[in-house]
Structures are given as structure tokens and as C-alpha cells.
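Researcher: We're teaching a course module on how sequence relates to structure. For the next exercise, students receive a sequence and then see the predicted structure as C-alpha cells, so they can try to spot secondary structure elements on their own. Here is the exercise chain.
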Amino acid sequence: MLFSDYVRLIRDNYSTNVLEENKLRKEREFAAAPLSRGISKEKLDKLLTTKVEARRDSPPQPGTFPLIVLGHGIGYESPINHIILCEYLASHGYVVATAPLLGTNLPLVNLDLIDLETQVRDMEFVISRARAFQNASRERLGLVGFDLGGMASLILQMRNTDVEAVIALDSGIMFEHNTRLLRQSPFYDPQKLRVPLMAVTGTTAEIEATGVHEDLSLFETAKYATTFLIRIGGMRHSDFTSLAMIEELIPGFSGPTRDHPGRHYETLCSYSLNFLDAYLKNDQKSFAFLKRRAGEIAPKEPTASVEIRSGRPSPPSEGQFIQTLLENGFNQAARMYQEVKAEHPGIMLFRESVMNRLGYRFLYQLGNSSEAIQIFELNVEAFPASPNVYDSLAEAYLVSGDKEAAIANYKKSLELNPANANAVERLKELRAR
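Model: And here is the predicted structure for the students to work with:
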């Protein structure tokens, strides 16, 4: 394949026309900006005819390989922006997949909660489709996101326990104006980040010089995740994409450069591969690479610093708890609850509403009132100030035929919420019997 094959993949925001003349028009539009900055047509033609590493319709290698799903950034939606990293990872034994970055209601993407959620859902769609590939592993999944894509990758992991590692490239997960948006998502919870995270960005001084303020609260509060903060000096925002390597071929392609962006981008690729090899392939050499400071690996490497924070062992997730209860019975789930309560004070293993629905499932759908009572009693222990948990427990006792226990729990619910009309009515009925 040629570089122009990727250029021709650039989606027209206003048309689904994929005819040859439309592909050629995309090439002309792609060339317009650099030509306007004085880059010669000869240099652009050389770029467009440059051979890339990918081979169209190549048969897959035997076996299965970890799946990597890529999220794009605003203003960097084109498929050319990450071709080098994606080909590099694919050449080292990964299936790499992505989808165009588009807005929710408009082709253009906005930095808002709706379009953030849209990219998360698009990445989830890519995961489901890519897992149908015969050579894509269903057990090993990593996410790589640039800019907005890093924010989407983080949210996706926080609500998808299948993800095993996340890379964020110069992403809004650590910049104040973007972390305000992240915290608006109902899925954002640093304690739900329970897989290794590697963030690659510039030096603090260079970031602050642009007027952007850092916010490292995620790294400080994600106590169950091992995090790597890699800072590479001399990089612009665009240098965290394949544009950095294009600059080596055509200086000034993306505007005035700093230092040698291609060399810095190679460092980014190296750290990304080692991070994924370590956590998706359990490669011990890659673990060792990550734990050494950059200067000890290669003195000329342009990495300013490598900061590692080790995560604590994480408690089971709500999903794991519910699965344990359903598959192994209440007693084993109750032991899990008590262990989490002792080892992780302040962590709530389940939500009140989830346990309440589960209790009613056992009570009415499965006809198991004794198991339902145990579930509701555990909910009472976890949420003793909630009038609703006592109301539900009372109903389970009533179905089981224990009138006195039902009355006691309806009374407790009414103490906590005198406006509980259901408890008032039930108590009248029970006392009249």
C-alpha cells in the first residue's frame, strides 16, 4: 500500500460517495493546506507515493493476537494521523482497529459530554466487530487514545471490565479544562480504573507555557491502577501523532517544529509497544524496560521523565460479586462482602438498587423467598439509613409467612420515611389480621 491509500480513506464529512473521483478529490483537499504553506508539489507527490508497511488483503498469520482499539482526537480525525503507530503495533503481533471520529448530530466533533459518549460507543462497536476477526483475541484487549480518544478510552475502561490496558497520548485526562468534562460523565470514577494506564505527554514547563494547566488528580486518586506518566520534551500536540514522522520527510508539514519530532515519536512508539507487550503478553523484558528510567535505557533518548505509581490490589467489581452470588450462592457472596468490608473500608461493593432488584428476582421470578430475605438483609446491612431496603425486606418476610418480622421491618421503614404510604397500608393490613 501507499501513503495515498490512507489519504483516500479520509471520510468526507458531507458525503458517502466512495467513487474514484471522490477519492482523488480527497487527495487534493489533503494537499491544499501544506501547499498553502509553501510546500512543493514534488514533496507532496513523494509523500503520497511513499510505500507503507501495510499490505492490502494479506492473509492473517495463524493464531490469535491481542486486540488494540484506537480512539482519535478532535482536529486529528484523519486515518493518516496514527498509521505509523498502528502499523508498528500490527507488525509486532497485534490486531489494530479503529473507526472514523464523527460527532453525534453533526459530522464535526465538539468537546462536550455528548460527543465524548458517542466516541466511547463507537469504540465499543469497533470492539464487537473486531472480535469477530478469526485472529483477534477475545480475552486480551487494549485501548490507545489520542486527545479526546484518550478520554473516551478511559471512560470505556471504567465501564468495561474486559479492557486490560490503556494508553493515553497527550490526552485530556490530565489537563484541567478537559478533566472538568470527564468528571461530568456518569461513568467517570477513578476507583474503577483497575488496569494499567500509560499517559504520554510533554514536560510540565512546556505544557504550562502554552497556557494549559495540568490536573493530575486522576493519577492521585486511581489507587487500584498502576500508572505510568511518560514525559517527552520538545513535542507539540501534533507530534504525538504520525505527523511527527511526516515532518522528518517534509519539514514544516504541520507548521514550525521543535527539535526532531520523528526521534521523539519513535520513543513514544517504543514505550507504547513495551507497555502493551508487558500487560497484554506478559513479556518480562518489557516489564523491565518500563521500570528503568529512560536515561538508563538509552542516554540519547529524549524522554524527560518516567513516573510510575503502583496500584493496590483491587476489590472485586460489582459484576464479579453478582456473578458469584448467582453462580456460587449467597453464602460465598456474603463472605466476599465481609472480606471487602474488612480490607477496603469505604468501598461499596454493590449499589442498593442492584441488590434490591436481585432480591425481587429471587422472591418472585425464582420463588426463593429464603434467598431473597438473605439478599435484602445484606442490603440492610450495607445501607441501614435507607427506608426502601427495610420495606423490601418486610415484603420478603410477608411472602415467606413471617408476619412479625414483616411488621418490624415496615415499622423501621416508616421511622426512616414517615411518608412511606406502602408501609402505612401494609401495617394496617397486618394488624387487622
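Model: If you want an answer key for the exercise: The first strand starts at residue 65 and ends at 71. Residues 261-280 form the longest helix (20 residues).
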